[in-house]
Amino acid sequence: MSVPQGSLVGPLFSNIYPNNVDKMLEKAREVTSYKGYKSVEYARFADDLVVLVKRSRCCTKTRLLDKVQLRLKQELAKLKVEINESKTLVVNLEAGETLKFLGFQFRLLAATKTLTFRMAEQRPQREKRTAFLREIKHTMRCSRFKPVANMIRDDINPKIRGWVNHFRCGNSGRDLSFVKSSIEAKVRRFATRQTPKKRGGHKWSTWTPMASYEDWGLYQDYRVSYVNV
Known about the structure:
The protein has helices at residues 10-16, 19-31, 61-78, 126-142, 148-167, 173-194, 209-215, and strands at 40-45, 48-53, 99-101, 104-108, 120-124. It is mostly helical.
């Protein structure tokens, strides 16, 4: 049975079909763990999969990585599914490389005098941030004849809410602040084009935050959500 791309049931089937792959990786996570420390961890969203591997007490990192890759290919072969080699990467975070997954980028931060162990930083990919702001700009251009409050309520706020709720975790504070200030400036410019100063409006730089958030109802919840996993 084939499922058309973009169908409503596609995400459901894409989560059910590779179920045995999940079971294999969960078993690998269990058998390689030692005193609460995991040598294999994974995350999957539909057909996007990332597997994290580090050295274990029984295997070097390279050997463990080879084993995981072999078992992954074997389980996918049973489902008659092949790994897309052109989109598959092996990333060494300890060497300073960056992992990209679901719009986020992950990298290891260097140890400091106060922090003796290395932490992972999780932020939105810059190209995703840029693409989103361009989408907001395009939406405003297509809605240029709407009143400011209506445009924000109907066209802008749903997009902002969805993007922010996806990216509000991890170390996204600076990125969220950048998006917030950029959108606020775009809204002020939009308002100035509709009501220029000679008709009782303001220069784009002199509209107050109260106008954006209280009068027009611009979305403003850009708080980072810290979740313990």
